């Protein structure tokens, strides 16, 4: 009881004042009269430390208190709140309590139900004159469910009169598309009247709400709605006042009166505007229609993108026009197309959007006086180019009118990489329309695939946008831009720099980069990605640290990066295009130079993404490659398995991927094993590989034993089988006859059993070899009878190895049977045989065992 | 359009598991996705609310991990600033963008822009075709106002106890999730209103 009282009192009653910025964590508890205020010094010190962390214990305990509140206290709180709301004056205490209610409701993900009376009172607060109360009641009601039987009425006539906060509640509590449709219809009805009729204030939030509905449910708008809105947008975009609104604003958006002497709006550089109003025009104050101009332009692109997906209602061809008489000046931009008023509304909007964007592009060349405006100019350029792209998609005849402007813009910006993010939409424009206009796009692609990744690889936002651009346009890029696939060494810089963010995009992009021409180099590049990551770090450091600066800890790798003798190596890693030679001979040198980078977080993060990408690479490459290429890839795997940057866990992971795909490649194309038998045997014959590349070694031995057979490839001769047998036999003998060198670990039991199985398989195909392998198995039994051997220190493992040996030995006693078990014809190994319990392999084995081992 | 604006922790919170975050403010714009999607038509409003909460926490988790990885990679610990140094805190903030794949957690693909100011993250989830340059600017402006008007560099809990200030801020600078092209004059006029609201 005390606890709950405390909770109630501290959480619900505490004055909001007490939790303002000057107070400490846990303030709810500490500042209430029920608890002592004093705190010891230690606590103070802790608080000081916490203050640097921004998220205090106070906030945490507030959330906990809000969650743990008792139902009875909550009810008490509700009735107190109802009483408060009945009062005439709604003061501080009401605001404070509502805020608390909001916290209680939002602290849990489950919905709480309010008493109907309270809910009604809150709903009536939505139209309160105090904005704070509107905001709070809207927020509280958003966290609750509408009362059953009291659904918000989406058809009410006064929807347009709603303030922004009430409207947002209506939007968030819509329960169906029908609700959205009627809300939409109501809002549009509000737009229909002249601006003076409806309160202008409601109009500003009308557009964002319509845009939001359009996003979620474009079907809610009818063709008539589109016509209406298109017309209104034309008015606001193109015919907003060109004189400044009334001076200093005295509160709301729209309270300013027009000054008696109309002052024209200005451009961002301070000169007087000579053309129609846009978002890049400034003045002391703004008129209503100028505000609507801002809102209209802000939603224009989305509108153009989505308005074609509205439902097909009745179309009313209507070219009625009144805007041209609104007293706007004739635009310089549109002077040539004054006949546009005869166009139907949608086309007319397209035309006006075209003019607006052209004007924005022209205005963006002006020197803005404020930084925020310089940023806005860039954002406007992006928007303008995207809108132009869109209108040209809809009406190809505009392409020829637009291209000169886009070309000029590209010419103006292309040398300045600070405009990279504006240049990207321009590239999109070229990609969409370059062919129609027969324009040369070479310089655009040189920028996008050349300088951007090479020089801006560390711009995370550009990376995000560029990779998205590639994803969206993959098909046309592959078909029309040959630079795309060639530029993978450059594009991978984004991945090497910020692997966690970029990996997701590369999962989608990588398959498009794998071709027969690029596969081998791409594989090498992926394997060297951690080196690229380290090199990019060095490149940036080298650029920002003067060479003479030897202070701090010197980096050996940085010296190497700057040294002329290694320049070639690093330049190769940093190359922009594929097909410019390779460094495989000096790769180990590079790895030594970069050894210290192995624990740099960026390099480690990068190395963690490589296995994922390798899987994608191999999955794709089998779909495009021919046998020759696959054979080459097997060689690369064998070769690169010992040529990797020594990042913790990296080598092991890569070996695992290699093993997995070596197996899959050989399974798909068994003749690869005969083709590459020389290299595979060379690898399998090196005893050192047993210890350093256990995973991949095991798989190489397995594929040799499995696929070196006439049934897989007719070229497989007895001589080949024998030479393979001898190679593996030598290794097996070596590792099972002596103790490993001091400090080295024992060979893995899996390697030993795989070698034994491979030998038995080979022997079953060339019966002359059976005595040799049987001799080994008998020796094995003799040696292990003592119980321990120097090459295996785990008893269980040893038992398993010996058992395996005995099984194989027994099997080989009946060579014909051995062959059918160890090299089954493909139709027997096919999956359905395993599913059929009557003929399954285990059953056959058991039957054979009972035959060969009569009890 | 912007789908939601979130304020959340990007530091370890003792009461939560590693990598989990506390959501201090969340505002989802527009109607619920479930209302208009074919598959979720039958879902009850209570359940929809839970789903929406889960979506928010998926976003927050992804952003949290992105912030941590980005800080780890840059090797730069988050700066420490005190109340009054909001501009500096914003300048030192880490930023980034996370791609949210379609279905994870929204029906369509989204881009989550984030700003990491010390132990707090400010996240804007945008439709991917949205003008990200504009969104970045808007996120910075919103963050600056939040830091200033809710004294977030201090140790108070105003973001929880005065969340209506964030609502009021959003209703002007990001009405119903609409990014606005505001030049400095328009921005000033809105900021005046914001200041007037905060003074109440």
From TrEMBL, chain A:
Residues 376-493 form the AP-5 complex subunit zeta-1 ARM repeats domain. It comes from the Eukaryota. Residues 54-335 form the AP-5 complex subunit zeta-1 N-terminal TPR domain. InterPro entries: AP5Z1 (IPR028222), AP5Z1_ARM (IPR055450), ARM-type_fold (IPR016024), TPR_AP5Z1_C (IPR056856), TPR_AP5Z1_N (IPR056857). It holds the Pfam family TPR_AP5Z1. Coiled coil: none annotated. Residues 505-851 form the AP-5 complex subunit zeta-1 C-terminal TPR domain. GO terms for cellular component: AP-5 adaptor complex. This is Adaptor related protein complex 5 subunit zeta 1.
